[in-house]
Amino acid sequence: MLNGRMRKTKFTIRCIAASSALFFAAELFTAASFAQAPPSYPPQELDRLVSSIALYPDPLLAQILTASTFSNDIPDAAQWADEHHYLTGDALAQAITADQLPWDPSVQALLPFPSVLDMMASDMGWTQELGDAVLAQRPDVMDAVQRMRRRAANYGYLRSNPSIIVGMGPYITIMPANPAFIVVPSYSPAIVFAAPRIGFAVGAAIRFGFGVAIGLAFRPWGWGLTRFNWGGHAVIVNNVPWGRTWANRATYVHPYNVRRFAASAPRPPERHELVKRSPREREDAKAGHAVKEEHSKAPKREKNRDEHR
User: Fold this and answer.
1) CA distances (Å), 22 to each of 9, 13, 30, 33, 211, in order?
2) What is the pLDDT of residues 57-94, one digit of tens each?
3) What's the rounded Cα separation, in Å, for the pair 282 and 173?
4) Does residue 169 contact residue 148 with C-beta atoms inside 8 Å?
5) Average pLDDT value for residue range 43-51
6) Which helix (H) or strand (E) holds 240?
7) Is the Cβ–Cβ distance between 76 and 110 less than 8 Å?
8) Which of 16, 64, 133, 165 is the most exposed place for a label (fewest CB within 10 A)?
9) CA–CA gap between residue 161 and residue 57 (Å, rounded)
10) What pLDDT does 261 receive?
């Protein structure tokens, strides 16, 4: 009997020791991952990283750059946005709040743009590289954006139109013509950053067929208060300089007027019907086409589908 108890005690001690060793190993691995040296991208690599988003309006570009530094949140956010693509305005803002989403507010800020999140989730290698570059070399990333914009403007592709206002000062700015309506441009980097062929219509190289109305309901996520200070190499998010860097990425929390929920917190039951986008719409988003998501007609489309069945 005594030997049996002693064997059981020794076994318990070994289990505790093994669990402790695994815990400390995990802690050391986490610490080591955050202690690794920051990446260093040369200018040509930064040009490549920003080429597909450099011509986005400043407010949207700023949200994308900050969200890319939380790349682990992007796939789940893209799925949520896809499932709720039929919601807009106040209804979408209420659904985001009701679902107590655990992702950083910078990622939540992109939920009104399913095609943008889908683009980021479809190429996670690029998204992670972009986020690392923003954390380690934010001034260099901003300089790369300016280089690409200057190139597109010099070739005649980038100019003001009914959707955007292009400022051609020492730094090129791209602002929505209507501050409450953010357009998502569609273009090929291989075209707009190269000299046009003879006879090519440069005005058709950048399309602005898809946009999202962003009203006061999205002010808590920084919309309307997010911009660049190009000369100072600063990103202003929710009217506060965004200070997340490679060194403080494990602890930095940017001020938002949004309640943060822990990732482990249980999500409440859905209070709205989930609707999936068609495979065709998914492919259009991944290809970077201008997807016209006519949210106001979504209920009618669903009714027509049911009647067709």
Assistant:
1) 20, 14, 12, 16, 49
2) 999 999 999 999 999 999 999 999 999 999 999 999 99
3) 30
4) no
5) 98
6) strand 240-241
7) no
8) 16
9) 12
10) 79
